[in-house]
């Protein structure tokens, strides 16, 4: 698996909107605000994780 895809999958788990209450506790903000912020960060991580093939061959 390519390192960029691994990074995207890791970002998906970290920025998943379902963990918004934990992030809200950590940053002392409202849960609704954190859901909005995490959604904005979650979408690019999905694009990275599920993006098309790279121009380089995989080293499997």
Task: Give a description of the structure.
With 60 residues, this protein is an all-alpha fold. The chain contains 3 helices and no strands. The chain has helices at residues 3-14, 20-27, 31-50. Helix 1 (3-14) packs antiparallel against helix 3 (31-50) and helix 2 (20-27) crosses helix 3 (31-50). The radius of gyration is 14 Å and the shape is elongated. The relative contact order is 0.23.
Summed up:
With 60 residues, this protein is mostly helical. The protein has one domain.
Which features would summarize this protein structure in a list?
3 helices, 60 residues, mainly alpha
Radius of gyration: 14 Å
Global mean pLDDT: 88
Please give the largest β-sheet.
none
Morphology: elongated
Computed structural class: mainly alpha
- How many separate domains? 1
> How big a fraction of the residues is strand?
under 5%
Uncertain parts: none
Question: Oligomeric state of the chains?
Answer: single chain
**What percent of the residues sit in helical stretches (DSSP H or I)?**
55-70%
Task: Determine the number of helices (DSSP H or I, runs of at least 4 residues).
Answer: 3
């Amino acid at each position: 698996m390519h390192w960029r895809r691994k990074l995207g999958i890791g970002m998906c788990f970290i920025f998943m909107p379902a963990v918004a209450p934990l992030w809200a506790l950590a940053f002392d903000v409202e849960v609704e605000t954190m859901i909005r912020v995490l959604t904005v960060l979650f979408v690019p991580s999905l694009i990275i994780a599920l993006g098309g093939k790279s121009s380089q061959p995989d080293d499997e």
